[in-house]
Amino acid sequence: MPRDANRSLDARFQRSSSALREALLRVLDRAELAHVTVQMIVKEAGIGYATFFRHHPSLESLLLAVADAMIGDVAARIFPDLVKGNQEGALAEFVLYVEQNRRAIRALLVGGGDRIRREIVVRATAQAGVLPFQIDPTLPPELAIRHLVAAGMEVIVWHLDREPGRSGPSKVLDDLSQLLRRLALAPVIVPLH
């Protein structure tokens, strides 16, 4: 097959992959994960049913692809602050991302069930392991990152299961930041400045 044809197929494959991920997120804005079907996703994406299965063997596979994309988005958002040693800025970016993607994150971490959540923790831990966190040098780095991710996910799940408070969006963000700081970051990170 000519090289240009391969590039065309690769580009089409990437567009279909992206369309499926975006369609799943749009469907999740309207329906709980338990009620989402492959048919709903392909209709939303405007692609054929068979195309879904060329990309993913199951809905679970698409969920994990969405999770991987979101983990990558988070890493890209917090990396610049972490490189500068601005852990507070990184935390603020993370909390803002969680709030902006509240429904999708809740669907993945709660609606996907324990098996999906465990897999997301594994994937997020691998990604977090390459970020420049200022880990307490008295702790094993792998364990510190695992704690950071797992505890952070538990705080997020708890937060997303609550109804937002009446005190306004900035108070909700401050509350989430405080919880993440105390329960996930403080035990393993050199003190935030």
From TrEMBL:
S-adenosyl-L-methionine in keyword set: no
Name of protein: HTH tetR-type domain-containing protein
GO molecular function: DNA binding
Keyword Ribonucleoprotein: no
Residue ranges of DNA binding: 37-56
Organism of origin: Sphingobium cloacae
Record lineage: Bacteria, Pseudomonadati, Pseudomonadota, Alphaproteobacteria, Sphingomonadales
Coiled-coil annotated residue ranges, if any: none
Gene3D superfamilies xrefs: Tetracycline Repressor, domain 2 (1.10.357.10)
HTH tetR-type domain boundaries: 14-74
Highest rank taxon of the organism: Bacteria
